Amino acid sequence: MMMASTTANAQLSSNPDKFLGNITTSYQVDFGKEKYYTLWNQITCENESKWGSVEGSRNSYNWGCDNAFNYAKQHKFTYKFHALVWGAQYPGWFKSELPIKERYAAIVKWFDAVKKKYSTLPLIDVVNEAVGMHQQGNPLMKESLGGEGKTGYDWLIKAFELAYERWPDAILIYNDFNTFQWNTNEYIELVRMLRDAGAPIDAYGCQSHDLTDCDVNKFKNSMVTLQSALKMPMYITEYDIGTNDDNYQKQRYMEQLPYMWEADYCAGVTLWGYIYGRTWTGSEENGTKGNSGLIRDSQDRPAMTWLRDYMKSSPAKTAKSPFPGMKKEASIYVRPLDIKVAKGDVLPIQVRASMATKTIEKVELYVGSELIATMTEAPYQAEYTVPTNTTGWKTLKAVVTTTDGETFERLSRFNILSSTTKRSPYSDAIPELPGTINITEYDKGAQGVTYDKASRSTTANTQTGGWMEYTVDVKEDGIYSFDAEVASTVDGASFHLSEYSFDNLTFLADIVEVPQTGGSSIFKTMHGVLTKSLTAGRHRICLNIDKGGFKIKSLTFRRYEQDKSISVSVKSVSPATISVGDKTTITVNASSSTSTIAEVKAYANDLLIGIMTEAPYTFEFEPLAAGSYTITAIATTAEGKEKMSAKKTLKVSAKRSPYSNSPIIIPGIIEAENFDKGGEGFTFHDSDSQREGDVNYRSDSEGVDFVRGNGGVCIGYTAANEWLEFTVDVKEAGKYNYAATVSSGTTGSGFTIGLVKNGSVTSLAKVNVPKTADNDWNVYQKVEGKLSKDLEAGQQIIRITINGANCNIDKIELTCANPNGIDAATTEQHQPTGPVYNLSGQKVDANYHGIIIKNGRKILVR
User: Fold this and answer.
1) 484 pairs with which residues across the strands?
2) Could you tell me what percent of the chain has a pLDDT over 90?
3) Going from the N-terminus, what domains does the chain have, and what CATH number goes with each?
4) Is 513 a catalytic residue?
5) What is the mean pLDDT of residues 84-113?
């Protein structure tokens, strides 16, 4: 629970119910001549508690926020965790190339890591800046947390549910910017939908970075607009006035801060930095860096002088707060089971209510001004029959009365559509589980109530953001497995199963990634296991389409009963690395000490690829596309019990082909950026999948860094052990010289030139790249030398391997070494029959004079 300050008289704010806080300064707490705790009674880490700062390296945690949090505890004031989910500062390893379910698992693991480190947190920015494209990473976060779903904001609801499960006593906040001037309506829509859906959001945070040039009347009107729409506690979370004009800064503080502070719905104000030159505002170029700071060269700017005086005033000391004592007493969330309903629908509603120190006497639920239920025992649930003579948004209000007579309120809404098609199961025969759901037989009802972006046609592709709900009867408690019949011609398609219950937005299983099946009408079976148990009784299961473009025919559910007496393993996948078009042999060992194995099913990325009923359990598998395949097997006994094997990995590369579809002719030039097509680990290797260069040269080379240089495209940002391969056609066997055009801004850079044959690499040369300019990679020069071994005539593979990082490579020219001079060439009349080349490997015609290469021989044409 949050602790009220016991050192209030030493701080600017002596109000016991709301704080005047600040952030860390350059990762420090005390900064300047005054101790932090003598000024502020709340702290937020500017960067130290963001996911990207904490878990920059996967599974390795740097809790730099400990410094601030421990300081707050020592001086007995409150602190805020900023922020759990943010589409701007997440780890570099968390990216779209990760499987969706792996990304979701990574977010859950991040929440768990924070919970393990900080079992209690007073205040949490659960999600930061999720309005539209406020951050470029928002689509990634949205997809990773389950997408839009029924509400359009399911991903945000899920984030708040995950936080509430771990910190039910914390004040959970949604935080965003541009709330006063530009995106006010979008902000209201987002926060209000979270509130209306019953998400455990306790307050909204207005960053207030946009107030430097905000007219006082517009600012006040925006405050009123926000609170009138949301009617929830507000925090001013990141207040700063960035200007070098002392009087202008003071004017804005005098106009704005009292209006914020004295609003009884404002729970506290956090300034975003106070040391001039150490805040994020302004710029170095024009001498305004950190111009929102209130203390400059250890002297108060006029706004700070005014702030000290204002916080001593009676209005500041006595201003009311929605969280007396800076603590959350009531957790109240009103959840209508559907946000949208048709006329005549019956709408179930639950009030989730609990108190920190008090006891609930009753919960009253209103629709508008009409009292529809008075409830004295949890769960506080009621039903409302929607009238048939009205449409539009209707307000829900829960009034919770405690035994000491105090009341607490929470609002929500639902929307009555013009449709008169009431919700009902698709047919009188409600599907039973175990059993099969036909995908086109989703519940009857209005669009937006039982489905969206969906079709009852069996030939229609799914659409991203679509969803369908199915009423089912679960016959027995337990975990269930499911088989989905899918067909897909696209990469990256995915779906998940969820249930919108009163208690939670529950993901019933991991997000399922649908692989290509070989055709839009080629249906194959995917297997999954629910991660949540289903209780016996009536349920609504929702099929959410995270990324559409595939077809799905049915979902078949079975009781998932494991049998520990079964032994099952994928003995081998041989070979474990193949190319598209090749086959691999999968061998499974399966037995039971108490029963008989009825069948063994093998799966690649959860897609059924083989069924075997007799030992030895062996079959051939031919993948359709390049990628990494997770191979598993499930053995089932005669009694229907099963067990899944551990995973094995099959790596499938694309077919190798030269970049220009023809081998590079040698003698000739190898352009470093034109390495073979085929894929990571097959024709190239990069140490990470992040593009660091300034050129987006190729789409088939994830992670390889292309840079502008030497008048064209080069390879840059190289790291040790990275490599590139090139298919070449050597026209003449013999000795060769190299001339590498390279650059480096540092010492120790270099690479090797090697020959790949039968899976091994033979070194031909070690190229030491000099420092061509000091910390400048734009100066290129040639480095020349000889290959240590002769090249054979014909097609072969050359590999460039980085052994000294930070060199840029433009090209490598390989020329014939001819120690015997021109006499080594045969003299004859040049006849225009068959292809001929000059010593640079370029095709020439009959008019060319000099040394040519024809049929692997040097010929002097006079």
Assistant:
1) 526, 555
2) 84
3) 8-326 (3.20.20.80), 330-416 (2.60.40.10), 432-559 (2.60.120.260), 566-653 (2.60.40.10), 664-816 (2.60.120.260), 821-861 (no CATH)
4) no
5) 93
